[in-house]
Structure formats: structure tokens, C-alpha cells
Design brief:
11 helices, alpha/beta, about 55% helix, about 260 residues, four-stranded antiparallel beta sheet, 11 strands, single chain
Length: about 260
């Protein structure tokens, strides 16, 4: 989810609408509302924040430390009406991850966020989960080395699962990340439908169910190594059983030959 902060409603609503058209959830906030939202927001809502875009406001440099303490994984971006070298340097010194001069298309913002997310994940894990690779910049994922075309909601869910691989995420967390915390026009149950379709597509390509679902607990993307172990264990068991059949066949043949010789 992208948070847009600006004193001018025309700016926040414009960017929010543009993100929605690209299939990304967003939330509009006034500068005076951001500190309260960070302090009172529940952990699930805060964890769903991908980036916070801060436009025109006098106190924006003071927001960086607050954002870092509540949303440590979120990208912090400054949107500038008029760029200057000194102003840009000051914003970077204040802790901003990116400084962009308006007008800037949301697709460029999404692409830059994708680069940021992949770089952050590379320090920890990666943007890959076994045979699944996602990009966080609007591109379709690769599954088994091949591009898998997905509807934008399913793509965003897969990106969120990869981002949180190894951890269980609830339906509410996925909904907030994909649709936004303030979207009351869509029921959370739509997440179940999206995941059901996504699971079928992944299973068709991977040969196993890549999304583990536990009732009342949530969803988790399975590590492909687990599937490899199951396959190798099955292969070892099959190979262990295989020599038994020829051995029995040979024994039966010898008994048959002895029986014939004795009869003669």
C-alpha cells in the first residue's frame, strides 16, 4: 500500500486515483494526520505499507524518524514541486530514500519501489521463493523460469506472499496490502477467491500446491526445497523397493529350474 501525504487534497486524490488504476492500494493523509495514523495504526495496517510519499508540507523532514520506527520496511519518498540541488541533498540527509520531481507518473514510482524492494530483500532473503520470482514493479512474475501472466490483484497477492515468505499472513493483512486499509467497498472474502485461482495456476506450473492455507491462521508460501525433499524421498523409497522385484523373480526362476531337473 502507498501512503500519499500532502497539504493539497488535489495532489493526494490525484495520486490515489492513479495508483488505483494501476491496481495498487493507497491511502490519502494530510500532514497533520500522518503522526496520529502512525501512532494509532494497528501493526497489520502498518506492515502493509510499501511506501510513503510526502509532498508539500513544512514538517516533512521530521516525519522520517517516526516512519522508520513504525514502518521500518517502507520506502520514504519526497515529492518535490521544484527541484534544487541543495534541497535534494538536504532531503537525502534527512533520511529520505528517494527524491522525485513532479510531475512523476505512478508507473515510475512503482518501478522505483520495485528496485528498492528487491535491494532490501537481497540483504535479507531474496525476491525469489524457489521457482517463483517476483519484481514488485508491475511486471508479471516468473514461475519455473517462464513469465506467468496474472491479473493485477493476484500478482500483488503473490508479491506479498513472497515478501513474507516463511511467515504466515492473515486474510486481513493481504486485503490491506492489496486493497488498502480504508477500502470499505470490497469485502475481505474476495481474497479467498483470488488465492484459490492463484493456487490453481501455481500448482499447474509447479506440480505442487505452493500456498499453504491454515483455517483461522492464514496463508504461507511454501519453500520449494520442501517439495524437493518430498520428491527425493519418494524417489529413494521407489529405488529401494525396485531391486526387490528382480531378486524375487530370479529366485522363482531358480526354483523352477530345480523343480524341472528333479522331475526329470
Amino acid at each position: 500500500m502507498f501512503i500519499i501525504v500532502d497539504e493539497r487534497e488535489i495532489v493526494t486524490s490525484g495520486y490515489a486515483g492513479a495508483f488505483e488504476r494501476e491496481g495498487y492500494a493507497s491511502l490519502e493523509l494530510l500532514p497533520t494526520e500522518l503522526p496520529d495514523w502512525l501512532e494509532t495504526g494497528c501493526s497489520k495496517d502498518l506492515a502493509s505499507v510499501d511506501a510513503i510519499l510526502i509532498g508539500e508540507c513544512t514538517e516533512r523532514t521530521s516525519f522520517v524518524s517516526q516512519i522508520r520506527s513504525h514502518c521500518p520496511e517502507a520506502q520514504v519518498v519526497a515529492l518535490e514541486d521544484t527541484a534544487s540541488l541543495q534541497g535534494t541533498l538536504d532531503l537525502f540527509s534527512a533520511g529520505f530514500d528517494e527524491v522525485l520531481k513532479k510531475p512523476v507518473h505512478v508507473r515510475e514510482i512503482i518501478a522505483r519501489f520495485g528496485v528498492f524492494r528487491r535491494r532490501v530483500m537481497a540483504r535479507d532473503t531474496s525476491s525469489e521463493a524457489g521457482a517463483i520470482e517476483v519484481f514488485f514493479d508491475g511486471r508479471d512474475p516468473k514461475v519455473g523460469g517462464e513469465v506467468m501472466e496474472l491479473p493485477r490483484r493476484e500478482r500483488r497477492i503473490l508479491e506479498y506472499l513472497v515478501k513474507n515468505k516463511g511467515r504466515r499472513v492473515t486474510k486481513t493483512q493481504i486485503f490491506n496490502a492489496v486493497y488498502g486499509v480504508m477500502n470499505e467497498g470490497v469485502d475481505e472474502c474476495v481474497v479467498e477467491s483470488h488465492i484459490s485461482k492463484l493456487r490453481k495456476k501455481l500448482k499447474r506450473e509447479l506440480g505442487f500446491d505452493a500456498i499453504e492455507s491454515t483455517r483461522y491462521i492464514g496463508y504461507m508460501l511454501k519453500d520449494r526445497s520442501g517439495a524437493k525433499r518430498l520428491v527425493s524421498d519418494h524417489s529413494r523409497a521407489a529405488s529401494a523397493r525396485q531391486p526387490v522385484i528382480p531378486a524375487l523373480s530370479a529366485l522363482n526362476k531358480r526354483e523352477l529350474v530345480l523343480a524341472v531337473e528333479n522331475a526329470v
